[in-house]
Amino acid sequence: MNVIFTSKVYAEALTAGLKSFTEMFETVRPLSFHDNCLVSVGRCKMTGEQVALKTYQKQKLDEAGRRRVRDEILIHSSMDNPTIVKLLAALEDTRHMYMVLEFAAMGDLRDHMSAMTERRAVDLLVRPLLSALSQLHYMGVVHRDLKPDNILVSQDHHVMVADFGLAMLHPKWRDSCHGHESQSQLTNTDCEQHLSCSSHLCGASMSQDAGAAGTPLYTAPEVLLCMFQNKPVDQALHPKNDVWALGVIVLEALLGYHPFTPNASPNGHSNVMFTIAHLHSVPLPAHLSPAAKDFLTQALKTELLQRPSAAELLSHPWLAGKICVPLDSAFMTTASSSPTTIIPSGSCHGSRGPSSDGESEGSRFCHTAAGLFDYGLMNRRVMSTNDVVECWES
Predict the structure, then answer these.
(1) Which of 146, 199, 220, 326 measures 20 to 30 Å from 234, CA to CA?
(2) Is 45 annotated among the ligand-binding residues?
């Protein structure tokens, strides 16, 4: 039994020598079957804790496949973030390669995302997933298969990114250095050196093995367009591919259904992949708040270079509880004694600039007040959750 990687949890037991995988771990029940691997719920015999076991059969892996699994282990073992499933150990014997993973008791996100409110989507999904993506992208890693099935939910209802089977590393992807507060002084050369040799990631393969990535319904337009034009997919691979996938997931959670299913496809095209590849913009439902619409408009920019990075989206007003409302919000009345803080719309993406006479033309305002406002006479819908008031046109 060869130990490829071990966390501190199992370091002592595994370094002491292990003759077989079953000496330390046992399978409780299967979770999912794939072409070359089995994912199951397991138990550590030493600690009694539940774990997830991912078992690859070597006979079903060619040399490139085995290298891909080793890259998965290298990349996953470098991640240290509560919003990323922990890799606890990786081992191999003559027949199998094993990954021992943190167990998510509440399953995957798909079981928890039916028509979420905006505030729940921000708290449960957007903040933690942007945190995870920001770390991944800062280290030069692109997940390439972000979807509800690969986002797991812990016992305490925290989401975690899982499954790095398609993840890739490339030193040229350094966009998240820009806007990353702790690294704002890094030059491009510094970023390249940091990203290409973060931790022990130098051993991971680069982009020559890219192939088609992920699940089509969550794949970014630039990647699908390469496929339709018979161009190498790695020409379009970029951290912002993951940002697109995040935008689709968030919109799906708010709608209660996937926005690009055949019936919901913007152009009504039967080939949904073709539709996504040739989109100019993504239609958004009218009932969303202006802040939510702006966030999704940014995340779902169909042009890669116009799409913000995960690190940039972390500072979006929607996440800060700043809700954009029209200029005539001056007419609102408060039902509580809490003071109302009105912030000029400069912090709201998408607001229009000043007009020639110096007045703000069609500008919006943001508020972070803890009060509840009466919009009854103005035909607006109001929702108050956790001392945050969301207001938008009905």
Answers:
(1) 199
(2) no
